[in-house]
User: What shape does this take?
Amino acid sequence: MKPFVKKLIWGVGSVLLLSVIVLGIHIYMVTRPGKPDANTRIMARIDFKQDINQEDAAKIYSWLSKQVGVDRVMCSAENDNVLFTYAPLANNADKLLIELQTNLHYKAKRYMPSPEEMKKGCPVSQSSPTYKVYNTVKNIF
Assistant: This one.
C-alpha cells in the first residue's frame, strides 16, 4: 500500500475510534443518576377518575400553570389527564395532586409508570450499537 493510503486509513480509523469513545462517555454522563439542581425538570401525569370537558381542562391548565415551579402544562379533555413539567427543588408532584384535588375538587390519581414501561420508554434500544457502547462504558466505570 502507498504511504498516503496507510496514513488516511489510520487517520480515519483514529477519528472514528475517538468519536465512539466520546459518544460512550457522553451517554454515560447524561444517563447516570444525580441530585436535582436548578435546571432539573421532571415530567408528571395526573389521570382524572371522571370525565373532564374542555372547560374543566382550561380551569385545570390555568390553576396548574400558576403553581410555583411548574413550567409547562398540557391538559387533555379527550384523555382525561394532565401532563406537566416542574422543578423538583421548587415543588412536588404529589403535593400538587393533593392541592389540585382540594382546590378544584376533582378525583384524580398520579400516574406512575411500571418498571417495564420505564424500560420501553428508554430512547436507546438495547440492540443498538449506541446502547452497546453505553453498556460497555457503564461496566468499565
Summary: The beta strands are 42-48, 70-76, 81-86, 108-111. The chain is about 50% helix and 15% strand. The first helix runs from residue 3 to 31. The CA atoms of residues 124 and 131 lie 6 Å apart.
